[in-house]
Amino acid sequence: MTAAPDLEAIVLAPLVGIGRRFLFLAAALLAVVLVGAGAYALQLAEGLRVTGMADTQNKQMYGIYIINFVFFIGISHAGTLISAILRVTKAEWRLPITRMAEFITVVALTVGGLMPIIDLGRPDRLLNLLMYGRWNSPILWDFFSITTYLFGSLIYLFIPLIPDLALCRDRLAGRVSPPKRAFYEIFSVRWRGTPLQWRRLATALTVMMVVIIPVAVSVHTVVSWIFAMTLRVGWNTAVFGAYFVAGAIFSGTATLILVMAILRRTFRLHAVIADRQFTNLGLLLAGLSGIMLYFNLSELVTVGYKLEEGEGFFLDSILVGAFAPWFWAYILGLASPAILMLVPKTRSFWGVIVAAVVVDVAMWIERYIIVVATLRVPQMPYTDLANYLPSAVELAITAGAFALFALLIAAFTKIVPIVSVWELRHGAPASRAAPEAMPAAAAVQA
Amino acid sequence: MREAPAGPEGRTEGGAPPIARRDLFRRAASAAAVAALVGAGGSSASGVEAGSRVRRWAMVIDLRRCDGCAGLGVPPQCSQYCNWGRFVPEGQQWLEVFQRELVADGPVAGAGYLPAPCMHCQNAPCVNVCPVGATFHAPEGTVLIDQSRCIGCRLCMAACPYDRRFFNWGEPVQPAQVRETAYNVVTQTPALRGTVMKCDFCTDRAAAGGLPYCVEACPRGAYWFGDLETDVATNGEEVVALSKLLEENEAFRFKEELGTRPRVYYINGHGEEAPRATAHESAFLKDRLEWPWREIAEATA
Ligand code: SF4
Ligand code: SF4
Ligand code: SF4
User: Fold this and answer.
1) pTM for the full model?
2) Could you report the predicted ipTM of this complex, rounded to two decimals?
3) Torsion region of A12: left, alpha or beta (phi above 0 gives left; psi -120 to 50 gives alpha)
4) How many CA atoms lie within 13 A of A133 on its CB side?
5) Which CATH number fits domain A4-443: 1.20.1630.10, 3.40.50.1980, 3.50.50.60, 1.20.1250.20?
6) For a tag site, which of A186, A299, B79, B286 has the least CB within 10 Å?
7) What's the pLDDT score for residue A79?
8) Residues of A in contact with B194 (CB under 8 A)
C-alpha cells in the first residue's frame, strides 16, 4: 500500500478539472443516450408496434428490453458481492475496489429498472402498480424488490463515502467549483472524524452489509420468478432462482473487472489497484463458471432424459437447431474463465480481461436464449411462426441504455473519489474494535 | 395465490370459500366493471341474479363436427364472425382454428381441426400474474380484462398456456361508431392501445338470451354454449343437459394436466362421424380471414 499523501493525490486528482478527453467521451456517450431517448419518444408516439415484438406473427411478447432488464439487474450484483460478501468475510484485497463495485450496482439498477418501464404498453399507467397492485403478481415482487435494492444500495454507497467526502471538502476547498464544494459540504454531513462518528459509521456499515445480501439475493430470485411463475417450457423450473442469482454474480463480477480496468488505466491508479485484484476476481469468475456449468448440466439432463414434447422442441432448437450457435457460444463463454484461469500462462491481467469480456457477452446471450428461444416453443399447433429480430428502435434504445450506464459511471468518477481512501488506509471499520485509534480523524481535521 | 370460483351459496370448484371469490372480484374489478356486471340489483346485463344462482358459462366444442370450414371452402366461420361481431383488431384471432396432426405416429394420417377461444380457466395463469388486477374473474367465472386499467406488461400473455391473449401494439383501427362509445369492459370496446385483449365469451349476448357469435356462426353446429349452474347447453338448434353432453361424450379440456381448469370443453369422439377428412385440407382458408376495419375507417373518413 502506498503512503498516505500519494494515495490521496492519486485518488483526488480526477476530481479537479475536466480534461478534453473526458469531455469528448462524455459528449459521445450523451449523443448515444439522446439517440436512445429519441427512439423512445418515437415508441411513445407510435406504440410498441415500432418494435420487433408481435403476437400474431411471432408470439414474441417480450424481446430485447427484457433481455437488457435481466442483464443489467444481473450486473448490479457486482456491488453486493464485492462490498458486502467480501466485507463480511473480511477479504482485504477488495478494499480498493469496493467503491466502484457499489457504484456499478446503483447505476446498473437505475438503467435496468428503466427497461421494463420502456417495455410497458401503457407507461402512463405505471402508478396503477401502486394504486391497484396485487401481491399475487411476480411483477409486484420485482417492483418492490428492485426499488428496495436500489435505495439500499444508495445508502450502502453513501455511508462509506462520508469520510471521503469530508476529505474532499477539506482538501479540495479552493480547487473545485462552488456547486461541487457545496455538494461536498452538504453530503459530508458535518463529518469531523470524531470517535463517536467512526463508531456510528462502523455500526451502520455492519448493519447495511448484512441487510443488503438477502435483498440482493431476493432481487435476482424474483426476477427469475417472473419467468418461473409461468407454465412455459424453459421457464417453468425451480432451478431458476438459484441459476439467476449465480448468473448475476457471474456477470456482475465480470463487469466490475472491466470497469476497474478502464478506470485504472484512465486515472493511472496502478499504485492503488494491483494486478492481484484482477487475478483474484478472475479466480472468482472461474469458480462461478463451474457453478453455472453445473446448473446448465443438471437442467439439460433432467429435462432431456424425459423429453416431454415442448422440452424436446426446445432442446432441439438450442442444441442443434436455430439457436445452437447462440447456445454453444454461451456454454463456451461460461467455460472460458475456468479454462483461462487453469492455464498458468493466461492467469494474468489480460487473461482476466478476456475472461470478463467473454462472460459479459455470454451472459447477455444467456438472457437472449431465456427470452427468445423459449418463446419460440409453440404452445399451440402453429405451422409458421416468424423470427424475432429487434427493430432499429429497440437497438437504438439498447445502445442508449449501455451508453447511459457508461455515462453515469464516467460522471461519478468526476464527483466522488472512485477509491475508498479511508478504507484503504485503515482497513475495514467493522474489523476494528477501537475506531478512536484511527489516525484518519486527525488527518481529516488537520 | 390461486382463486377458485364459487357461487353465492358457497359452491366451489376448488374448495376456496366463496368470500375469497367475492373479495377478489371487489378488488379486481374497477368501479365501471362492477357497475356493468353487478348492476343495480335484480337481473343484470351479465346474467348475475342478485340473491340467487349465478351463471357458470361454459362452452363445448365438438371436434367430430369441425372441419375448419374447409368443406365449404370458406375461412373458419367461427373466427370470422368473432372478428366481425366483436370488432376484433386486425390480425388478432380471439378464436383461432388450428390444424393439427390427427394421430401423431399413428396409422391415420391427415389433419384435425382445433378451434381455440380463451379457455376461461378457473385457475387462470393470466389472472394470477396480473400485477394490477386488470385481468379478473367475473362472478360467472369468465375471465375478463379491464383495458382501462391494464398497464401493458404482457406477463399474462407469457403466462397463458394456450396463447389466447393479444396485444394492441399500435393504435387499434376500429369503425368510428365503436371508437366513439364509452369504454365497456364486457365487450372490450373500444380497443385501447397498449393493452391486452382476448375472447370474452360474449357474455353480454348470453345475458340477453343470445349466443356467442362463434356458436351462431358455425355451419356444422360444432359449438355448444351453456351454463353449468342450470345444466343446459345449446348449439342454436338443440337444447341438451350440459352434464350429460359432457359425460356421454367423454368431454375433455385442453391441457387438462396443467390444472388450469378451463370452462371450454372438447369432444373428441372415437373416430365416428368425423368430417375432418384429409381430402380438402388445402381448402382450409384461415389465411383469408377478414378484419375490415381499415376499409371501413377509410370509407367513412
Ligand atoms: S386461456 Fe389463457 S387467457 Fe384464457 S383464461 Fe386461460 S390463461 Fe387466461
Ligand atoms: S398486460 Fe395488462 S392484463 Fe396482462 S398482466 Fe399486464 S396489466 Fe394485467
Ligand atoms: S365467445 Fe365471443 S369473443 Fe369468444 S370466440 Fe366466441 S365470438 Fe369470439
Assistant:
1) 0.88
2) 0.89
3) alpha
4) 13
5) 1.20.1630.10
6) A186
7) 79
8) 47-48, 120-122
